[in-house]
Each structure stands twice: as structure tokens, then as C-alpha cells.
Write a structure and sequence with these properties.
Length: about 525
């Protein structure tokens, strides 16, 4: 027979953190360190049955008294489980007989719900409990999954917020596009009227035309922002673009200045925005004007070069050089190196901010801008831009926004014009009447339907974006009642094609008057077979 092993209480507590020693009546005599650290009611003198309910491994379903069960389980391999009545704690182990009672060799059962609810730590478990490492890994996995779920929720919310913001931005962009195109139409239509008055204000007319083209390009930029236009920039002919905008550039100078242009690259094209180029030149001219208190001359020249700027050394190809020369006092030579610093600190109110902006723009286009100061004699600014191809220069006279179609022949067409912008409406009606059309104005869909009820029309010319009832809805309603009428829509951007009929005609704002007249003539001609029938 083997000798009995005697354990000190500290050793017993290390092996069975939740051991309980009771007498034969199941009154607690001593308890393990787990109960002391948890401030439980398991203290000497307490009846065990008052604190715990009992479960044991028996195949029958009969209920026995704890005193009998523990006595029968003593010194057997049967598993004893105790459930705390006051706390969510579960204990498990075996029973040993000792002098005067029983030793319940118990440990904490490592269950998830116990750990989550009671905040147990690793030190609460036995050092020999093999389930603790696995339980630790499971806990870490659950924590990571919970964190991942929360991150997914946060990401979904951020995506929803981003979609909402983009949607609001797109709507704002569309409203801006609509308003700008309306104002552009007003400018173009009134420029046409100005031209008809005799052409005495030709310089002002040219400047207005240039301003109209620039705002039109700004509309295109907004359309790119709102997803209604491809982001690719089309090549422009440098000489033609500058020459066509000289009136606009000259408008930024007072009378004591002269602006000269000498173009030597009539066919060279660069891939930059037309408005961006003119705005950059305007900024340089205005900046030069501020440095020339007594007036002076500013000259813009263009020429080809096989040598690129310093930042593009080694790159093959040809370059257009746009050189701006003025005879002012010149920039302080000490400030020139700062302009060529790749990472300068430039403030918007500093005198070299404009030139730095030009350089940044040129570099973004694949070129560069360099400044040469000649104190007392002026400043040279050279903008290098890579040539992308030789452009087909358009006929500026033919492309004039005030050019009208040849007079229309045939019977007078009756046109109902619907436009919510009153100035644009008045200008369109006046132009159409001067061209021989019988034009009737309406500022909304309700007025248009009233006019249609009172008279017959050959063509409905309507804006798309209008309050209450859109031009598309109006066109459907009108065509349903008057199937022979011609439909022409006007808009700053094209609506959903699924809402349009294939035989409807579409005009883009700002209106090109030549195209307007051609479209109306075609719509009227299409009604001729119907009228003759």
C-alpha cells in the first residue's frame, strides 16, 4: 500500500483554485484562494447546500441529497459539478475523503459566458488546466471578430455618408451647371442682338464672346466633376486660342497699356484646357500690370523649340514656348530662385504667388515655366508646353457664336418657347421673331399648356430643368395631345436617354444660334409631310 501524500493548503490552492473542505454535514471548514479573491459567501461555517446546487454524473434522473451524493462520490472518479446560486460560477472536480469530512477538489469550468459575465482572469484557473491556452486563443479570436464586425459597421456607415455626400455634391453641381448655362445663353443671345445693332461695339462684343467661351469651359469642368463629361482634355491650337481671346486679354489692361501678340506656331497644338491657358495668361498680365505703375507694353510671342525646359531634360519631342515680356521694373533677382524651388513656401498674397501658380499648372501639363528678371528692363516668363500634334485650326468666323443660319424659306413656323429664366426667354423669342418665326413665350409648363389650348404650334422649344414640371414631362404631355408637333429640348446637360423619344431633337446650352436655327428649320421641315397630308 502506497503512503499517503500530505499537501499544504498553499499547494492545494495552486492545484485546485476553488477547493472546498467540508465536514460530514457539508459545513464549510476552509476554501481555496479563488473564493477569497472574488469576495464570495463561501466562508467557514456556511452550509454548502445554501450556496451551491448539485450536479453529478449519474445515469438515473433521481434527485438525491447533497450529503448522500458527496458521500457516495468520495474517492471515486465520478465528476462533481456545483453551480453557485448567487453568481454565475460553475465548479467541477472530484471528492476525496479526509479526516472529519470531505475535500472537494474543484476548479473553475472555463466557459465563455462565465468569463464574459464575471471578468475572470488567467490566475483564477489551475496551473495544470489544459483548457486555459485554448480558451485564451478563443477569447482573442472572439475579440478580433468583434473588432472586425465593428470596423465593418463603421466602414459601411462611412461609405453611406460618402455616397450621400457625393450625391449632394452631384446635385449641387447640376444646379450650378443649369444656372451657368442659362446665363451663358443670355450672354450669347444678347451678343447676337448687339451684333445686329450695327457692330459699333465690336471690341466689347469680342470680349463678351471670349468670356462666354471661358464660362462654357468652366461648365465642362463642372460636368467632369458631376460625371457628365469625359475628363480627357482635347488638344487646342495655341496661336489660334490666344488670337481669338486677345480682346478678352486686352480687357484686363487700362488704356495706358498695349498688348502685342506675335504667333509663330499656327498649327501646333497642346493638350491643355483652353480656359486654363487664357486664365494663366490673364493672371500673368494682371500681375505685370501691377508692377508697371506708369503703364507700358506687354508682348506675347510663341515659337517652337526642340529643347525642353530644364525639368524635362532628356525627354524627346517638340515644345511650344509661350513667352510673355513686359518692360516694367522687373522682379527682384533675389526672388527668382525661390520661384524655381521645387517645394517653396508661397503665400497667396505674396508677389510671386501668380508666377508660381503658372509654373505649377505648366508642370501638370508636362511642361514648365521659367522666369528671367532684368532689373530696370522688365521680366521674361517662358512657358514650355509639349506639342501633342498639329491641330486643324477652325475657321473662327464660321465658329462665331453670333453667326446665324441662312434665312429659312417656306411658311412661317409657329414656335412655343418655354424657358423659366425670363431674360433668356425674352432673348430667344426676340431672335426667333427677327428670323421670321412666330414665337410665343411661356415661362413654365402651365403657361405652355394654356397657350397650346388657345392656339396651334408647329414646334415646342422647351428648357429641360424647370420648377414643378420638367421640360421632358411637358414634352410627353404635349406630344400626347398634339402628336404632330415637333419637339426640341434645351439643357445644360443631357437627361436620361430612357426618358426621351428617339425623334425628339436636343440642343445643348449655352445655345449656339446657328445650330438653333438649323435645328428649328429641320424640325419645321419634318412637319411638312404631315401638313401637306
Amino acid at each position: 500500500m502506497k503512503a499517503a501524500v500530505t499537501l499544504r493548503e498553499s499547494q492545494l490552492g495552486a492545484l485546485f483554485r476553488a477547493f472546498i473542505e467540508v465536514d460530514h454535514n457539508l459545513v464549510v471548514r476552509t476554501a481555496g484562494p479563488f473564493f477569497a479573491s472574488r469576495q464570495t459567501e463561501v466562508v467557514p461555517g456556511v452550509q454548502l447546500a445554501e450556496l451551491f446546487s448539485l450536479r453529478h454524473d449519474r445515469e438515473d434522473n433521481k434527485t438525491y441529497s447533497p450529503k448522500r451524493v458527496i458521500g457516495e462520490m468520495a474517492d471515486t472518479p465520478e465528476r462533481l459539478e456545483l453551480f453557485c446560486k448567487s453568481k454565475n460560477i460553475r465548479l467541477a472536480g472530484i471528492v476525496f475523503s479526509i479526516e472529519g469530512g470531505f475535500l472537494l477538489a474543484l476548479n473553475i469550468v472555463p466557459e465563455d459566458f462565465i468569463i464574459e459575465d464575471q471578468g475572470l482572469t488567467i490566475s483564477d484557473f489551475s496551473q495544470i488546466d489544459s483548457s486555459v491556452p485554448a480558451l485564451t486563443l478563443i477569447g482573442m479570436q472572439r475579440a478580433l471578430l468583434a473588432e472586425a464586425r465593428q470596423a465593418a459597421i463603421d466602414l459601411a456607415k462611412a461609405q453611406a455618408d460618402a455616397v450621400e455626400l457625393l450625391d449632394r455634391t452631384e446635385r449641387i453641381g447640376r444646379y450650378i451647371v443649369h444656372d451657368l448655362t442659362n446665363y451663358l445663353s443670355i450672354i450669347r443671345l444678347n451678343v447676337a442682338n448687339l451684333a445686329r445693332s450695327g457692330g459699333s461695339a465690336e471690341t466689347s462684343r469680342s470680349a463678351i464672346e471670349a468670356a462666354t467661351r471661358h464660362v462654357s469651359d468652366l461648365v465642362i469642368s463642372l460636368e467632369r466633376l458631376t460625371g457628365h463629361r469625359d475628363v480627357e482634355v482635347q488638344p487646342i491650337a495655341v496661336d489660334h486660342t490666344i488670337r481669338a481671346n486677345l480682346a478678352f486679354l486686352e480687357a484686363s489692361l487700362p488704356p495706358d497699356f498695349t498688348l502685342n501678340f506675335i504667333g509663330s506656331v499656327p498649327q501646333a497644338a497642346v493638350r491643355v484646357g483652353r480656359t486654363e491657358l487664357i486664365i494663366m495668361l490673364t493672371n500673368v498680365i494682371v500681375d505685370a500690370r501691377g508692377a508697371m505703375a506708369d503703364g507700358g507694353a506687354i508682348t506675347i510671342t510663341t515659337f517652337r523649340s526642340a529643347h525642353g525646359p530644364a525639368v524635362r531634360l532628356g525627354e524627346r519631342g517638340e515644345w511650344v514656348v509661350i513667352k510673355i515680356i513686359h518692360d516694367g521694373p522687373g522682379i527682384d533677382p533675389a526672388a527668382v530662385p525661390n520661384l524655381h524651388d521645387p517645394e517653396p513656401v508661397i503665400w497667396p498674397d505674396s508677389p510671386d504667388f501668380v508666377l508660381r501658380a503658372v509654373q505649377t499648372w505648366a508642370r501638370a501639363a508636362g511642361g514648365d515655366a521659367r522666369v528671367t528678371s532684368m532689373p530696370g528692363a522688365g521680366t521674361d516668363i517662358c512657358i514650355h508646353l509639349p506639342i501633342c500634334n498639329d491641330a486643324e485650326v477652325p475657321d473662327h468666323a464660321a465658329a462665331s457664336i453670333v453667326g446665324l443660319a441662312p434665312p429659312r424659306t417656306g411658311a412661317m413656323a409657329r414656335v412655343l418657347v418655354v424657358e423659366d429664366e425670363i431674360h433668356a426667354l425674352d432673348a430667344i423669342v426676340e431672335i426667333l421673331r427677327m428670323e421670321g418665326y412666330a414665337a410665343t413665350p411661356a415661362s413654365n409648363a402651365a403657361q405652355a399648356l394654356e397657350a397650346l389650348a388657345a392656339a396651334e404650334f408647329d414646334i415646342l422649344l422647351t428648357d429641360v430643368i424647370m420648377p414643378e414640371t420638367s421640360g421632358v414631362d411637358l414634352a410627353h404631355a404635349v406630344e400626347a395631345r398634339h402628336p404632330r408637333i415637333g419637339i426640341v429640348l434645351m439643357s445644360g446637360y443631357f437627361p436620361d436617354e430612357s426618358l426621351l423619344q428617339p425623334h425628339w431633337r436636343m440642343l445643348r446650352k449655352p445655345l449656339d444660334l446657328s445650330l438653333l436655327m438649323q435645328t428649328l428649320a429641320a424640325a419645321h421641315a419634318a412637319q411638312a409631310p404631315v401638313r401637306s397630308a
